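Troubleshooting log. The previous structure file for this entry was overwritten by mistake, so regenerating from the original sequence record. Sequence copied from the archived sheet and checked twice against the printout by T.R.
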Amino acid sequence: MTEAFPEQMTAETPSAADTETPVRKRLLLPVRGLVCAHNRRGKPHKERDLARWLRLNRVLHKTDKCDFLVHGPVPPLFGSLLRYSMASAYGQPGDIKQPLLMPLSLRTDCPGDIPDLAALKADGLLDILLAPADAEAPAVQAWLDAAAAAGIPVRVQVQPPFSASFDPTTFAKRLAAANVPVLTIVNDDPFQPRPPCTDETDAHRTVDLMNALAEAAQAEGIETNLYGLPLAFVSKANTGIAGGRRRFFLDHQQYHKASYELAEHLTKASPRMASLAVAAYLGRYTSIRNLPDEFILRWIIEGDRHAIYHALVILAKFARRWRLWRFTPDQRAKHEEDLARAVARMKENGYGPLGPELDSLHTPPESIQTAQDRAFERLMPGLRVETAPADAPSIWKGLESQHKHYDRIDADRLEEDDTIRRLAEEANHTVQAFPPDIEFSYDDIRPENAFGVRMPGAYRWHTLVDREVQSVPIYQGDLPFTVQITVGGGIADFAGFSIWDAIKIVCPMEAFSHVFILHAAGDGRFVLLRDGIPVKPVQFEGQFHTPRRLPTYNEVRASLWNINADICTQTPRVWEGKKRHPHDIERIRHSVLIVSTRYARRLQAVLTGIAHQEGVDLRDIEVIVGYVPGIDATDDVLNSIEAVFPDLRIVRSPFPERRMNAKGFIINQSLKLANGEWVTLLDSDIVLPKDLFARLDQLPAETHFAAPQGRKMLTRDVTAGILLGEARPWTEWDSLLHGPGEERYGDKREGGPNAPIGFCQCVRRVCFETVKYNEYENFEGADWEFACSMLQHFGNCHFLEVPVLHLDHGGSQWYGATQQQ
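Regenerated output below.
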C-alpha cells in the first residue's frame, strides 16, 4: 500500500497486514476492439483507413487492445500497423501523425502461409487468435508450433462443422500441450459464416461435439467459453461457461460491444463506404463554443430581470434534449459503474432478478426468443429453442465462478482495481481522522468561467448552456494531497475535479448533493470518491483520457459539466500529505526540463549523469520530466532515481496519449512547474558534461541564453555500453568525447554561429514570460524558431566551452527510440 500520509498514521489505523487481502478475481468488461483487414467479399481496406479505424477504437470506444482480423495470408501492411499502434513509427501510415499506444493481436483463419512471427513480436504483437474454419486443418498445428517458437501467446476459437473423425479429447490435449490459455467455441461467427447442418441428426451430433469439446478443454485447465447454444442444449457441466450475445459482451476475453458491432456493419460495406463511415465518426468530435455565461447572466440576475431568467432556464432545459453542445461520457465507464451496482445487488439477493439497471443481466440470461435463437434454428435444422432451465445461473454468477485467464492488459486492470480500493480506504481515513490543512470560506471557491452569486454558506453557480464550468484553483502544490468539496442545491451531469487543462477526473451526479474527494498518493496514483465510495472517472467520447497517475505538481479546480441552470459549492478542504523526499523549493537554482517519449533506458543514463554533476549541490537542481505514463518504463526509472538520489528533486509532468507528439505543448505546460533561475531544455538522449551547471552559475547576470558548443554523436555500441553501465560518462568523459562517433561541435556545430538547436538550450526562467515554444504537431523547426526568438528579445547566445554526448537511437527523431537496446 502506498503510504501517502505516514505522519498521520496512528495506533488505531489498520496496519498493512490487517488490510491485505488475497489476490481477488474481479469481473472485467471487455476492452478489446476489432478491426478487419477486408470486407466479407475479401475486398481489402486501405492502410490509411485501417489506421483510422484503429484510432476510432482507441478514441471513441476507449479500447485498450485490438484484434486485427485477416482471412488468408497476412498482408505486409500489418507490420506497419503494429508499429503505428505501438508508437514505433511516427507519422505512419499516410498523414496519420499521432501514435495510438494500443497493443494489437492477430486474428487469423490459419492459412498455410505463416508470416515471420518473431518479427511481428518485435514490432509489439500482443498475441494471436487462431480462428480456423476447420479445427482439424493441418495448418492449425503449424501455427501453434510457430507461435510457441516465437514466444507469442495464442488464443483459439473453433466452430462447426466438425468431421466425423473429430475427437474433442485429442484436440483439447493438443491445445493444452501448446499452452493455449483460452478456448472459445462458437456456433456461428458473423465474420466467418458456416453452412447449416445437413439434418437433425447432424445437428444433434454437432451440439454433442461442442459440449464434449468444452468439457474436455476444461478438464485440461483451459479457460473455455461456449457461445451460440441456447441453455436448453448445453450440458450441465457447461452451464457456467455458456451463453449468448449478452454474455459475450460481458466476458473480458471477448470484444467491446460497440467496436464489435461497428466491425459487423463495416464488413458488410464496400471499402469506400467503410472509409467514409470511419472518417465521419472521427470527425464528430468538434466543439461549438458559445458566449460566456458571465456577461449574460450578470446582466439578468444583477438587474433583477427574473422573468427573463426563468424563461431562459426553461428554454435551456428544453434545448438540453438536443445535445448540441453537450459533452457525453464514454459508455463503457458508465456501464462499468452500473455493473458494479448490479453485481452487488445480485449477491445480496442470492443472484436473483435485478432491477431496471441492466437489462442484459436478467436471470435466466437466455430465456427469450432472440435473433440468435433464430440463427441457431437455421443452422441446426430440426432443433427448436426451448425455455432455459429453471436453475440456469445468471450471467455474472457464471462468469464469477469460471476459471479465467488474464493477459497483461487485463492483469494491469485487476491490479489497478486493488490499488483504488486501498487508496479509497486511505482517503476516507484521512478526511475522517485528521483536520484539514486548508479550509476555505464559502466564498473563496467561486466559478472562474461562469457567473456566480455568494450565498450564506455557499456559492451558487449559474449557467444556461451545456459545457464545463471550473472554479478558481482549490489546491496548487506537490503530491500527495487530498481535496474535498461539497456540491449540491442543484444537479449537473458530471462533477469532480480538473487538473491543469488536460486531466478531467469527474463522475456522474446521481443526487442533488454529493461530497467529492480526490485523493492522490505520493507516486501519483489517485482515486475519486463520491460520498465516500470510490467511483471510476468517466472518459468523454473523443475527448479526454484519464491518466493513471497525476503530475508531481498539480493545480486542482472543481469541475462541473452540463449544469442544469444552477448549483452550489460548499466547504472546500485540503489535506497536504508529507512528501516522500521533502525539498527546499526556495533553494532550487537549476530546473532541467526533459520531454521523454519511449526513451526510458536513455532517460536513465541522462538522469544518472545529472545526479553526478560536480561543483553544484544536488539540492539546487530539479528535473521535470514530461511524459505519457504507461508507454514505457519511465515511471520505474524515476522511482529508481528518487530512491538512489533523494536530494535530486524529480517532478513528474504526465500527459494524455493525444498529446504525446505535441512537444511544444508539453514544454510550455511543464514550464509552469519550474522553480529554478535557469531552465535547461534537454532532450532525453543527451548526456551532460559533469560541470554544466557550475559553468552556468559563473555566467554574468546579463546572460539570458546559453548552450553547449555542440554534441558528439555516439555510435550504437558505445551507446549500448552506457545503457548497460559498462561506461560511465561522468568518469570517462574524455575517452567518450574523443572516441568513436561523429563530432558536431566547435566549428562543426549545427545551427550556424548564433542559434543553438534544441537538444540542449539553457534559458533564464524569466525569459519564458516573453518567448514560448511553438506548439506544432510534429515539432520540427520549433526549437530553431525558439532560439531565433530568444536572440531577437535577449541578445546573443553564450556558447559554453563543452559539448554534450548524444546517445544513438537509430534515427533522427525526438519522439522515440526505434529500439530500446
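The first strand starts at residue 32 and ends at 36. Archived copy saved in two places this time.
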